[in-house]
Amino acid sequence: MLNNYKFNTTLLRFFIYIVLIFLLILIVVPIWILIVNASRSTVEIQQGLSLIPSTNLINNYNVLENRGLNMVRGFTNSFYLAAASTLVTVYFSMLTAYGIVVYNFKGRQTFSNFILVLVMIPTQLTIIGFFQYMSRLGLTDNYAALILPLIANAGGVFFSKQYFESMLIQDLIDAARIDGASELKIFHTIMLPLAVPGAVTLGIFAFVGSWNNFFTPFILITSVEKYTLPMLVRSLRGDVYRTEYGAIYLGLAMTVIPVIIMYAIFSRYIVSGIAMGAVKE
Length: 281
Prior knowledge:
Elements: H1 2-37, H2 42-47, H3 57-66, H4 71-102, H5 108-119, H6 123-136, H7 144-147, H8 154-167, H9 170-178, H10 183-194, H11 196-212, H12 215-220, H13 229-234, H14 245-278
Helix pairs in contact: 1-14, 3-14, 4-8, 4-11, 5-8, 8-11, 8-14, 9-10, 11-14
């Protein structure tokens, strides 16, 4: 009986490893092909698939420069926009969620349900009204139109609320109040440091979402010097006879590599943050 149990456990573990390796290949191979194609010419790409890098990386970058696309400036714009969006999203989402969880006010559950409804509304459904609103405020072609609305990020508030509900220690807050600490001081010096895993997780999601965002900046930003990397890569598309696929793959690789690096550095926070947010006592 014991031998059969060990055999079944070993067999199950073997199949789990096989599935995980298969999933790993599905994830890694497309990224590797993207990086390889960034070093190949358009003719080489049209000839077929290859897993070996070529020698046209510099030529592809020169194509980007010759098209008048300043990729360094696009990278800077994307990083500035993503960093500012992340700070605004994390701070105000955590602050709002803290208020919802800690304070027992009338209509709290209704307010929480309303936030959940907002999470399920797609951006494309509200973009016309949003554009008109930003236009009346004079914020079109301005990064403020992409950063300031994130103060009311419903998805960030929902995630932060779930996280605070799982780790909130009411006795610690009451002790700080007895010691005379203000509510903002309690949040900044006690609760926010305790919520670092959740804040980092939310920050990664916010950074990647802003970094990869093409739709909203494409609607609001018109000046070429303010284009982000996804917008610059999109502008490379020409007719079928002039499309430089090698340059396009290089632009795509430039947008993907920073995200991969961030996930590699902060992956442990993602796991712990999501796990903590999913467990309730």
